[in-house]
Amino acid sequence: MSARIPPRSGIAVRLARGDILTVIDPEGGQVSDMLAIADGDPGEILSNGRTFDYEETLRLTTGARLWSNRSRVMLTIMEDTAPQHDFLLTPCSQGTFRHFYPDKPMHHGCFGNLADALAPYGLEADAIPTAFNIFMNVTIAPDGRIAVLPPGTKPGDFVRFRAEMDLVVGLTACSAYASNGGSFKPIDYEIAATTTAY
Amino acid sequence: MSARIPPRSGIAVRLARGDILTVIDPEGGQVSDMLAIADGDPGEILSNGRTFDYEETLRLTTGARLWSNRSRVMLTIMEDTAPQHDFLLTPCSQGTFRHFYPDKPMHHGCFGNLADALAPYGLEADAIPTAFNIFMNVTIAPDGRIAVLPPGTKPGDFVRFRAEMDLVVGLTACSAYASNGGSFKPIDYEIAATTTAY
Asked: Which of B41, B137, B178, B193 has the most CB atoms at less than 10 Å from its CB?
């Protein structure tokens, strides 16, 4: 199946172990925040800290695994044409908008979109951690200072994941101004069942 | 008050808004994982992602604020003599020990120590996020690769926090081999009530 996530919105999908999820930036320059929980057990959730620890890098691309808070692999990155992703920053929320965009209209952000999309699967908003921010361009200076720049993705850039356990995955089309250069765009995704053993 | 946390153990303390918490490395070269939850409301918890976002740096020292998942300031760093801290990696757990030290005796790690210390205040183990790893020395290479090195602290180095809300704080004396150069040492802490307005 394939579908489009409209600008500034979010969805949730169930993946069986072995399913392949491809997240595509159809126009270029857009970000998609991704969360994952164990299907049927929202206490097990994607963890940036465990992932950084076990993968021993902040730069997660083809071959990297995304780990849960219980030290299990949730997703493997199978293919990746994007210049970068981010796993440092939490999804933008009403608090983020108040902090960074006090003069802009309020929006519940990727945080609110993920909370709404995953609530039916038992995830509480307080339990939403740092998402894997697909295509997000966060730079780290030698002194540790970070900056959020527009993504360097071209139209059609994508990242492909394999589900390593049964999951519910939340995905957004980003709502924050800085993350996507101020232009809100859609995100496309495709899901295919694995037919070969691995 | 002041107290010593024995090697490879953890404690929890309640802080009123305005209280000053000083965490001291008495021998040098030791790490203390710190978590904080809102007193009476464990759904509000320390967040590395919110902190990185609002402080716009990975290098948190004097003047930096540590933020909650609900975008409120929990603690401010008032004074800091240590060369570095880390806010990227999750507390070591049984999973961490299996992954990195399969030939070493199993230990429930800072994760287990924080879980035990904070359980009486309503925090569930699954909800434990990345802790603020006081004195921990994590380097980031230009290609994003990270490495855990022994802390550069000298005996008596300390970091002093002010509680910006009523908190329960968990603190450990680290249990992982890499974090402290393989020598398990105690951690000291002091708590003083603020007597001046601010």
From this structure: B137
Q: What is the pLDDT of residues B151-191, one digit of tens each?
A: 999 999 999 999 999 999 999 998 777 777 777 899 999 99
Residue spans of chain A under pLDDT 70: 195-198
CB A47 within 8 A of CB A53: no
CA A140 to each of CA A88, A144, B131, B140: distance values in angstroms, whole numbers, following the listed order: 10, 6, 20, 9
Token pair listed for B67 = 């933020």
Both tokens assigned to A145: 């200072």
| Residue B47, phi-psi category: left (phi > 0), alpha (psi -120 to 50), beta (remainder) | beta
CB contact under 8 A, A146 and B48: no
Per residue in A120-147, pLDDT tens? Answer: 999 999 999 999 999 999 999 999 999 9
Give me the pLDDT at residue B195, please.
59
**Closest CB to B49 among A70, A90, A126:** A90
Q: Which of chain A's residues have a Cβ under 8 Å away from the Cβ of B44?
A: 126
CB contact (8 A) between residue A71 and residue B129: no
Task: Report the residue from A44, A99, A124 with minimal CB separation from B71.
Answer: A99
Instruction: Please state, in angstroms and rounded to a whole number, the distance separating the CA atoms of residues A101 and A120.
Output: 30
Q: How far is CA B26 from CA A117, A145, B31, B172, B173, in A?
A: 48, 30, 11, 14, 11
Q: What is the C-alpha to C-alpha distance for residues A82 and B87, in angstroms, rounded to an integer?
A: 26
pTM for the model: 0.92
Reported ipTM: the value is 0.90
The closest alpha carbon to B107, from B120, B123, B119, B96, belongs to: B96
